[in-house]
Design goal:
single chain, alpha+beta, seven-stranded mixed beta barrel
C-alpha cells in the first residue's frame, strides 16, 4: 500500500492525470502470479449485483470490449502485486478455440491519461470475437488492443465483489 500511496503522491506532484476504472479482468495463471497481459473490460458493478449476472444474462452491450493491456510493468510500482493477484477471488474459464486455462475476476486499474503523453491520432485496432467457456456456457467476447486514448495502466487494486 505504501508504494501505491507513494506513486499517487508522485503523480500529483508531477501533475499527472490519473483515471481509475473498475472492470472485469481475464488473465492466464502464471507461476509468478503476475500475468504479462490481461484482458480488461471497464464495467461498474452496481451495488448488490453479482458478477455472474453479467455472464448469465449476457448483458454485454455491443460497445463492450475486452482490451488487451500490458500488465507486467505494474509490478515495478506495486512490489506486492503477485500477492494481490494470488489473493483475488477468481473463477476458472477457458479462453479461445484451444480453451486455454485463464481466470476471471474483478478489479480496479488506474490509468495515466495525462494529455501530452497520449498518442494524438491513433487508429483503433480491429476487434476479434473470441470464445469464452464459463462453467457450462459458451460466450463470445470482443477483444481488441488497448487504445492509446485510454492511457497507460499504472496500478491494480483488488475489489471485493460477489460472484
Amino acid at each position: 500500500m505504501c508504494s501505491m500511496l507513494s506513486f499517487l503522491a508522485y503523480s500529483k506532484a508531477q501533475q499527472r492525470i490519473l483515471k481509475r476504472l473498475n472492470g472485469i479482468i481475464i488473465y492466464p495463471q502464471t507461476e509468478s502470479g503476475i500475468p504479462e497481459y490481461v484482458h480488461f473490460m471497464p464495467k461498474e458493478l452496481k451495488p448488490g449485483k453479482c458478477l455472474s449476472s453479467c455472464f448469465k444474462h449476457r448483458i454485454f452491450c455491443l460497445s463492450d470490449h475486452f482490451y488487451i493491456l500490458y500488465f507486467n510493468p505494474i509490478r515495478w510500482i506495486l512490489p506486492d502485486l503477485s500477492h494481490t493477484m494470488k489473493s483475488l477471488h477468481a473463477v476458472p474459464v477457458q479462453y479461445g478455440k484451444h480453451q486455454l486455462n485463464f481466470m476471471l475476476s474483478y478489479g480496479r486499474i488506474t490509468f495515466d491519461v495525462t494529455p501530452q503523453d497520449l498518442p494524438e491520432d491513433e487508429d483503433e485496432s480491429p476487434q476479434s470475437r473470441v470464445p469464452l467457456f464459463l462453467y457450462d456456457r459458451n460466450l463470445y467476447i470482443s477483444v481488441m488492443e488497448l487504445p492509446g486514448r485510454m492511457g497507460s495502466p499504472k496500478l491494480f487494486e483488488k475489489i471485493d465483489f460477489k460472484w
